[in-house]
Every structure is written in structure tokens, then in C-alpha cells.
Amino acid sequence: FHFQVLAGGGSGGTRGGGGGGGGLVSSYGTSGGGASAVAQLTLNIGTVYDITVGAGAAVRAAPSWGQGYDGTASTIQVTGGGTVMATAAGGGGGGNSSPGAGRDGGCGGGAGIAGTSDAGGSGTAGQGFAGGSGSTSGPYSSGGGGGTAAVGANGSGTQSGNGGAGTQTGIRAAENAYYGGGGGGGANTNYNPPGGPNGINGSGGSGGGGAGSMNNAGGGQDEYGGGGGGTYGATNGNESGQGGDGVVFLRVATAKYSGTTTGSPDVETSGSDTILRWINSGTYTA
């Protein structure tokens, strides 16, 4: 059985960096973090497998400054708490001003601005890349969240970092989408003192990453595990972008497809294969 598990993306921070994309592990095409495709799964006939689709992280709302939240893991596991067959880690939340560091995850969150630490969070080997660093000098800029195919860009000068790109696996016949893009860093687009250069927000990475913003940042795209954008603003009503929900695929020879599922997966065929796509958690009976 070919498979792909993509976790939920992290949310951006307030005064902060973009959230990291959800980690990606795939036996088809390529995995995240620059890794080759992993081995296919061997599923036992008659055994029920839990398909858990990781949720994207919730927004971080100002004026409560803080790091973004981490996304949730996606897994394929024998029902009843049995063997975990495959897992991908949720994306790390973006940093803020203190602590400035992005959080570790499947893909690391980008660092915030003017923090005591301006390092991006680390990605998970074989799943995703690290977030970008932030700038500690005016007009301040934050790092982009890491993606499954590329690191988040560093904030530098007026420019906050763009989110790292997501990965194309090609597992689905109907599209060749990108999965697990990082969120862009938020910037101060109204810099003071007067006459100073204004900041530039980071864009989201391909694969559902949300854009950074001075005010309300863009959210990560559901079903693509995108990281949410960071927001610079820290007044009531401003929010970072939420992380996007993940997705789980199984691709099996049609002759071996049981047809027994829960969770209402999408089902399509490609040549001699049947492809199942879960956007909600469910089960598959082999």
C-alpha cells in the first residue's frame, strides 16, 4: 500500500513569525524534508486501521502576545492502540517578541521580531525544514515558517521572511498539489519614527501557507497542512493565521481494495490503482 500522511500546520505568532507546515511522510514520489519516498506499508487482510487526520493549530489572538500553537500529528495505526504504521508531526508555531524563537515541529515555526532569541524552530528529519530567523533591529522583521520542501526565509531589514515551499508527491491522480507550505512572517508596515522605512510582510509558501500581516494574518489552507501567517499587530482584534488541517492518503491496487472504510474518504481510480483521501479521521479495513 502506498500512503501519504500530512499533519496539521502550526499557527503564526503575535508580533511574530509564520507557522510551520505540517510534516509530510510519503511512500509515493517524495517525502518532506528533502527525503526520498519511504517504504510502502504492508497491511494485513481483515485488520482495521485508524486513520487520524491532524488538525491545524488555533489562532493566537492579540493582545495576548505569544508564540503560535503547534499543529496536530496525522497517523495510520492499528485500531485499538496497536502498532503505529506511519506518523507525521504537526507544524511548529511561529515565535513572537519574547520568546522570539519559533517552535519545533514537522516543519519549524519562523522566529519573531526583537526577541531574546531569534532562531527559527527546527523541522523533523524526513518530514520538513526549519523556520527562518527574525531581525532584532528596526523596523523589525520576522521569519517565515518552514515548509516540507524548503526552509522558511529569514527576516532581514524591512522584509519579513516568506514561508518555505511545500512538496509535490503526485499521489493523487486528479492533481499534482503542493503540501505543507510555511506561513509568512508579519511585519511593521507602519514604522515609527516618521520617515523610517516600512516593513514588508512575508508571503505564504506554496502548499497552503498563509501570508503574514500587520493586522490579521492569513490562515493555512485546510487539507494541505499549511502554516498560518504571523501578525505584527498586538492590539485587540488582531490575530495570527491558523494552521491548515492535514490529509491522509492510501493508494492500493484496485484488485486488493476492500471497499470497507469509515470517515467518508474520497475514492478515485488511476490506472489499476484506487486512491483514498481522508480529510476527516476514519478507518480502513484491509
Task: Give structural notes.
The chain is an all-beta fold. It is 0% helix and 18% strand. The chain has no helices and 12 strands. The protein has strands at residues 2-6, 24-26, 48-52, 74-78, 84-88, 167-168, 178-179, 247-253, 260-262, 266-270, 273-278, 282-285. The strands form 3 sheets. A 5-stranded antiparallel β-sheet has the order 2-1-8-11-10, with no helix packed on it. Strands 5-4-3-12-9 form a 5-stranded antiparallel β-sheet, with no helix packed on it. The chain has a two-stranded antiparallel sheet with strand order 6-7. Strand 10 (266-270) and strand 11 (273-278) form a beta hairpin. The radius of gyration is 19 Å and the shape is elongated. The termini are close together.
